[in-house]
């Protein structure tokens, strides 16, 4: 989780706590209504924090998948390039071998 997301979560929780305290001090409602309001406020804060966490998790997973795809693509390109280089080396060696066979045939009776 980035530092901004953590700061946001802390700010939300602090706001909920301050709001709850102010609500209790200045509440004209009965205790049961006040408790219900507090419960709803905490549920909202919990849901917002959960949403922020899930959002950060999905961003991380998406970034991971993109980097994984990039690495796999680079690996495939590297293998392809190495295969072409190996083919060039084999062709070169086959030509040299053919030249050596031709030279050697001149010495044979």
From TrEMBL:
InterPro entries: Desiccation-related_membrane, YtxH. It comes from the Bacteria. Gene3D superfamilies: Helix hairpin bin. Pfam families: YtxH. The chain crosses the membrane at residues 6-27. Keywords: Membrane, Transmembrane, Transmembrane helix. This is Gas vesicle protein. It comes from Flavobacterium caeni. The lineage of its organism: Bacteria, Pseudomonadati, Bacteroidota, Flavobacteriia, Flavobacteriales.
């Amino acid at each position: 989780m980035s530092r901004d997301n953590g700061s946001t979560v802390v700010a939300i929780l602090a706001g909920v706590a301050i709001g709850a305290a102010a609500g209790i001090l200045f509440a004209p409602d009965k205790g049961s209504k006040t408790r219900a309001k507090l419960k709803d406020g905490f549920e909202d804060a919990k849901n917002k924090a959960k949403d922020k966490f899930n959002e950060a998790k999905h961003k991380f997973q998406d970034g991971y998948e993109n980097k994984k795809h990039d690495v796999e693509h680079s690996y495939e390109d590297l293998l392809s390039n190495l295969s072409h280089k190996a083919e060039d080396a084999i062709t070169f060696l086959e030509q040299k071998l053919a030249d050596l066979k031709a030279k050697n045939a001149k010495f044979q009776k």
